[in-house]
Amino acid sequence: MGKWLQAFLFIAFASSIAAERNPRTERISGSAGDVLEDDPVGRLKVYVYELPSKYNKKILQKDPRCLSHMFAAEIYMHRFLLSSPVRTLNPEEADWFYTPIYATCDLTPTGLPLPFKSPRMVRSAIQLISSSWPYWNRTEGADHFFVVPHDFGPCFHYQEEKAIKRGILPILQRATLVQTFGQRNHVCLKDGSITIPPYAPPQKMQARKIPLNTPRSIFVYFRGLFYDVNNDPEGGYYARGARAAVWENFKNNPLFDISTEHPTTYYEDMQRAVFCLCPLGWAPWSPRLVEAVVFGCIPVIIADDIVLPFADAIPWEEIGVFVAEEDVHKLDTILTSIPPKVILRKQRLLANPSMKRAMLFPQPALPGDAFHQILNGLARKLPHQKSIYLKPGEKILNWTAGPVGDLKPW
Length: 410
Fold this sequence. Notes:
By secondary structure, this protein is α/β, with parallel strands linked by helices. It has helices at residues 2-21, 30-36, 57-62, 73-82, 118-132, 135-139, 160-166, 202-206, 242-250, 266-271, 288-294, 316-319, 331-336, 340-350, 353-357, 370-379, and strands at 46-48, 96-98, 144-147, 176-179, 194-195, 218-223, 256-259, 273-279, 298-302, 321-322. A five-stranded parallel beta sheet has the order 1-2-3-4-5. Strands 7-6-8-9-10 form a five-stranded parallel beta sheet. Helix 7 (160-166) links the parallel strand 3 (144-147) and strand 4 (176-179). The longest helix is centred in the N-terminal third of the chain and has 20 residues, at 2-21. It is globular, with a radius of gyration of 22 Å. The chain starts with a helix and ends in a 31-residue tail after the last helix.
């Protein structure tokens, strides 16, 4: 215990000294830094389908909570594109086509998403655009993109076992999917998808900033569930047991400030912490990853095979710490073994404003933010290969594939 406390005190001291004497930021070196600062304007044109309001605005009017939900990227991406300089009103000159559907804006009274209507809604929208415009039919969606920020993206279920059983909605198989879910070798992430951060409220976080020279006096910080007793009473399925292992091993460790309580000082506490745990829950991702980066708290990522947002632009290996799920019981040893100079460099990289901007969906948009990183990802896929265009009468997608319930009218 003495060794842990000594290491912690030294790191807190070094961090506060660095805040005063060292440059507070460090530019990302190499190609990642260049990609992060790319400007997509002039590199692509996007046509936004005008759908009946029942697919988007009316849904939001029924439940404004969707504006602040972690799945809200689908709403803000729509709003951004409507006024973006990459938007074209001439579909003949478009590189990409966007279908604005608010498929996650169906919440329980407690704010949990209900994805069960989403497949029917997406199918309905695609049937509409394929019968009203010629552009879907010429590629069967290969030059279209959809924002699908569900727990398991286009598999439309919040439990992994059932999401895997469902698989990606068959009619989305040729489209580019912009999704928060990312895990290597998983049926719910197909090649070519763009992995994005979940939505976290930028203005709310900005309003809770504390002075930059505040010492980081908390070594490890986490607030959230360790067990989901309602959906996983035995405790072995939720987070694949990783969160339970955090609690059982470190609930009495003075280096770990962990609890299920969510205090009003949550954002301030993250800014006082050296490390912030970002374990998987039902899905590998959570808004904690965004919050950690924005508040300069080194993210400790506990989610095997996770595919992180904008991985070609953000050097996650350099700013974060990756801990295998099976090694959670070693967290104290792993984190106290990291040399202070390595910690200080991670903090300098995290202090780079471009890193923070890339994780946020601000209103109004800012250069280099998450909206622009999505556009950069789409621009890097251009030009489209000629092979995406179908021959007259050619069909690839099976419109009747998938669960019977998905085929019902929406």
